[in-house]
Amino acid sequence: MSEMHEIVSDNIRAALAEQGGRGDWLSKIQDEALADFERLGFPGKGLEQWKYTDISPLAAAYPDWLWTDSTAPQQPELPTLGIADADELVFVDGQYDAALSRLGPLPDGTFLGSIDDLAAQQPDVCQRLFGRLAASRSSAFVALNAALAGNGAALLVPAGVELPRPVVLTYLSATPHSSAQPRLLVDLAEGARATVVEHFCSLGAVIVNAVAELSCAQNSRLDYYKLQAEDPAAWHTAAQFAEVGRDAVLAATHLDIGAALARNELQVQLVAAGAHAETKGLFMADAQRHVESRVTVEHVAPHTTSRERYRGILGDRARGVFNGRIHVHAEAQKTAAELSNRNLLLNAGAEINTKPELEIYADDVKCAHGSTTGQLDQQSLFYLLTRGLDHTTARNMLITAFAAELLADIAIPAIAERAQQALAALRDASAPPPPVTPS
Amino acid sequence: MLIDINNLHVSVGGTEIIRGLNLQIRPGEVHAIMGPNGSGKSTLANTLAGREDYEVTAGSVQYKGADLLPLAPDERARAGVFLSFQYPVEIPGVTNVYMLKAALNARRKARGEEEIDSVGFMRLVREKAELMQLDKSFLSRGVNEGFSGGEKKRNEIFQMALLEPDLAILDETDSGLDIDALKVVANGVNSQRDGQRGFLLITHYQRLLDYIQPDFVHVLSKGQIIRSGTSELALELEANGYDEIVAAAR
């Protein structure tokens, strides 16, 4: 895999040189990120964090797919979520598409637009935010995203302002064998409130490598949703880095329903007293797809709380990986944290590797973690059958119920509906043949 | 004949539990099966309901004149066989109301009736819930989720009242109930006695039979009915214990 990352970095270096460099702060970030990427290389399975996810096919595709010209039509058909009242930025093949985007009037002082526009209008702010939470030196994929940066979205909400509508960021990869490296910068000032939805979709085999930096100042609240609904042939890697300040709340919901290979990593830092993170994720896969969901919550300050709930539903020969880690720093007394992961395997060939971890250095804390994996509960199934429900109905009810708790409190119905559709498809695809009843 | 069980043998995990059981129930009759722990009471109930891992190795069961054994559990239920579970399962995420409506409509469809409309359904549910003294709030909760033992049993009888089976099998519905809950359950069962519906009460204790008068009482031991009689037999059991009757039958 080492040659691959050298080819990729040579490619990028050549392209950056061709562009002549912008000579601005971004060029500097790109150069540094490229150096980080060259040093790190694509992660191999030897690394603990990549033990269960083999990215060698992805790495092999990277050099050729890096600079594929977009062949997207002027008006591509957007697999829209149908959130009627929202401000939406659309990115097609990694490029901001102003014509497809729709922005309503926003409260004074709010910025919502492309990172390019932010860099042009408020260079200082852009420079301050870009890379503040996502460190290129920590991960090859973050470094790659930074090296290829220049596109993505930014949302700045001034103190005390609550956005009237959810912000939807739609990333459509419409050109097969292309790659996109979107970055999202969110900065909520003191007491600000916003709902942000990242929606990833694609047509065919593509590479998407996304990074988000989510900054929540004192007493703010961010409701963050990520819907990964990529094409079944797509490769999707993503990482979100969140910082949650005093009495602030991050509520993050991850729904992974697409991609041939998807890996998401959420890292949350609770940096001041009263900070709270509520994270949950539902990942599903069928066929021979691979989905990995990782979450790390760093309790840095005392009196911080978090709850992490993750569920996986896997059919056919799909592979799932869950890793959840709660890290309570020595200063973080009075931490309360609860991490749970439950997985449902719908077919005998499906597999999950799950690892919930607690790492605690403070002594006055309340932490719990647990994980279960199993097939449909046969007792419950029998119970429903004895009520006269046919096998398919009973099975569907139980599978739906497994996801229900996570989907129930999604405040945007369109997102929950999209997850329900995916769940129904997975249910039907994994259904056993009807039992043979002697006549 | 509502149900005719003939020389039934059932194995669970390779061990024979029911060993040649015979029992006939006519429409309208209430039969009680009593027996010590491990005598095969619950195995009989679960076998009649169609549990897959209970293997019938010999014998026959005719239900309304047709072979019951080839039918899947849901087919048996739609044909009017109801099992009240000894340990009703909790199913978080499936609300009671959702499950009940699907169950009722499945039963109605099997009887050639139209699906029930929402108003009619809610009226029916309210009426039966009142009978079983279940608070309406339970409807929107998950099936048996967070219910006390007594609530679970009342929910079973509530479902029975709603689904109106032809043969109701009550597997130790009285176990773990305090006297008030027992009266509610018995009242629910008695309200469903209509001269047509058959009941098979499986119980460890005579107490239940103070409130539900059976037509016949059978004593089960080691997978066979070793004695049958009227309700006096239950009193004799209560007075003398199982050991004496079991010993006398040898």
Question: Could you explain the architecture of this structure?
Answer:
The complex is a heterodimer of chains A (439) and B (250). Chain A has 439 residues and is an alpha/beta fold. In chain A, 25% of the residues lie in helices and 36% in strands. A ten-stranded mixed β-sheet of chain A has the order 2-1-5-8-10-12-14-16-18-20, with helices on one face. In chain A, strands 3, 4, 6, 7, 9, 11, 13, 15, 17 and 19 form a ten-stranded mixed β-sheet that branches. In chain A, 50% of the residues are buried. The model of chain A has no long low-confidence stretch (mean pLDDT 93). In chain B, strand 9 (167-171), helix 6 and strand 10 (198-203) form a beta-alpha-beta unit. In chain B, the strands form three sheets. In chain B, strands 6-9-10-3-11-12 form a six-stranded mixed β-sheet, with helices on both faces. Chain B has helices at residues 41-49, 73-78, 96-110, 118-131, 149-163, 179-191, 208-211, 231-249; strands at residues 3-12, 15-25, 30-34, 54-63, 66-67, 81-84, 91-95, 142-143, 167-171, 198-203, 216-221, 224-229. Chain A binds chain B through residues 377, 379-380, 382-391, 393-394, 397-398, 400-405, 435, 437-438, and chain B through 49-52, 70-78, 82-83, 85, 88-89, 91-94, 98-99, 102-103, 106-107, 110, 142-143, 159, 163.
